[in-house]
Amino acid sequence: MMIAESIAPGHIKSEDEHRRDICVAGRWIHARNFVAATDGNISVRLDPSRVLTSPTAVSKGMMAPDDLVVTDLKGKRLSGHRPPSSELAMHLLIYRRRPDVFAVCHAHPPTATGYAAAGLALNKAIVSEVVLSLGCIPVAPYATPGTPELSSALEPFVQNYDALLMANHGVVTYGADLLTAFFRMETVEHFAQVSLVTETLGKQVLLSSRDVEKLLAARARYGSVTASQVGPQCPVTSETEAAARVSFTRDELEALIEKGIEDALQRHREDG
Ligand code: 13P
């Protein structure tokens, strides 16, 4: 029987183990269709002054441990025969802003990236386990990949969330070790698929604010760094959605539409 490849939890490992783990995570994101071609990048923080990253422009499903690149926290290559990921600046920003983070994973999983391309946050309280694990997943504004503007677009969100949709681009997740960063990527894509099913069904039953409060309190008990920083509107609960929703009877709606058409015709007559 084939035993599945594994990544051991924790970030205190030898550099060789980290190299092996990044290659395993690369194969996982490729095998699960989270990336196409040479998309995606993965890094770990080796120590306070060095990062181990995937190289640029290779399939992350076909990396060998020697392909990986060690850089300092400014992105200067210290060892490795390939150039580092073109998105390294985004990884370094996350390491600077989040001392608790030791691994970063970036990919383009199709359903979550669809939400990012539609400018839709994955922020509705429809799955208890996702509120518990991630709170919610906002969309950071678009910026050109591989530029300093991308880091600036993500910066306001990094402190408060552990997973971000990147508008018109993809997803970045991070955590205390590589396994956590990878699992968060899996959770985001899985949640995006569940959200899409509820959209297709045309119905979503949101958890109440009370339910969400209990889940957020449990998050805090589990030691989540971002637990207390989830915004008042995020995740969206049944109450916040109800407050944002207006409802009309059929007669009221028809009267409103007729009035709108009448007003537009009147303006047209006056102008013409
Ligand atoms: P790199 O191969 O340079 O890491 O870039 C891949 C990618 O997904 C850019 O968004």
What is the structure about, briefly put?
By secondary structure, the chain is an alpha+beta fold. Helices cover 44% and strands 13% of the residues.
Question: In words, what does this structure look like?
Answer:
With 272 residues, the protein is α+β, with helices and mostly antiparallel strands. The chain has a domain at 15-201: Class II aldolase/adducin N-terminal domain (L-fuculose-1-phosphate Aldolase, 3-Layer(aba) Sandwich), CATH 3.40.225.10. Helices cover 44% and strands 13% of the residues. It has 9 helices and 8 strands. It has helices spanning 15-31, 88-97, 110-117, 128-134, 148-158, 178-201, 209-221, 238-244, 250-271, and strands spanning 41-47, 50-53, 69-72, 77-79, 103-107, 139-140, 163-166, 170-175. β3 and β4 form a beta hairpin. It is elongated and about 75 Å long. The protein starts with 14 loop residues before the first helix and ends with a helix. It binds 1,3-dihydroxyacetonephosphate (13P). The site of 1,3-dihydroxyacetonephosphate has 11 residues, from loops. 1,3-dihydroxyacetonephosphate is lined by residues 38-41, 54, 56-57, 85-87, 145.
